[in-house]
Amino acid sequence: MDYQTVRAVDPDVADALDAEVDRQRETLSMIASENHVSEAVLNAQGSVLTNKYAEGYPDKRYYAGCENADAVEELAIERAKELWGAEHVNVQPHSGSQANMAVYFAVLQPGDKILSLDLTHGGHLSHGHPANFAGKFYEVEQYEVDAETGRIDYDEVQELAEQFDPDMVVSGYSAYPREVEWDQIQAAADAADAYHMADIAHITGLVAAGVHPSPVGIADFVTGSTHKTIRAGRGGIVMTDEEFADDVDSAVFPGAQGGPLMHNIAGKAVGFGEALQPEFTEYAEQVVANAKAIGDRLQEHGFGLVSGGTDTHLVLVDLRESHPDVSGGDAEAALEAVGIVLNANTVPGETRSAFDPSGIRIGTPALTARGFDEEAMETVADLIARVVDNVEDEAVLAEVAAEVDSLTDAHPLYE
Ligand code: DSN
Fold it and tell me: Per the domain annotation, does 358 fall within a domain?
């Protein structure tokens, strides 16, 4: 893969693009929200559809010349319906956050009340953080995970729903390693006569493959992003029943967005088509098996995992007991120096800060896309342990960097 046509007109940008290809090839991408999409998805996203304006929806556009945009968007919608079993799908949100915005705009008024998981316990900015539009437009109450188990305390969600009387209860998380019991959140929403939005941004692929239970048919709205575990073009998606179809569509356009990013929708269509193939189920199963393998091995090395393990694509490591003098930021920096790229993350009951928290979040979707299996993941866990045990030992870091090189060479990317 190279960017020769870019280079011919803009060597500076081409340098950065080529360097990014090298960076992705030569490092282990373990940011739980990232993936390596196929070259077909990349190609579709880089297509001529970037030139097209197509405000509206298939067969109801505000511009001429939309027949090919219609074809691509219809394919994306039909494939999404098949993948997730939803009655109505909107594939236009530019991101997962904008998908959430559309749902709020569809059924809430400014000042209405949202009940959601606290960001430091694994929630998301767009679920009502004060710095985000959701925290500014709505009155927000937050639940937390149980301090002992690290799991959602569904009784607490129910109690808060009864006390706070929200208009919407939000489930679905960005740093929660355990299976979500959607019906329990639905029961809490029912207790308050509230809407339920399940944001499956991180686990879209796991839900599509049936390796995580689906909230479709339980929650009123299911939102997600399309480039994480599902490995499709970058952006967001909203799924709902026919009852809310028009409200959601109007909230996406013209409510929250203008012209859809048709090139990204082409990438979504291609990625969804790939996810409908039987190999995708194997991929999703391997993502979860790999997360379990790395979690188990890290525990053997003495690391503490929030909730004691994982059912999903990520593990959340709490460094406080095993490495009281190493912050998440220290670990992130030392690991990046050897070519293991992940992010420092807050943990439940955080005692440091959001900028330099006590944990690291480790995800397996991208390495699984490169063909890593459980044995390779155990090797990665051993390397992570060596680095975090020796964050200032340059000799150890150099040895680990050489082992990372061997692993990336053995699992080529974008050949
Ligand atoms: N940035 C994503 C994540 O890392 O979880 C969510 O938007």
Answer: yes
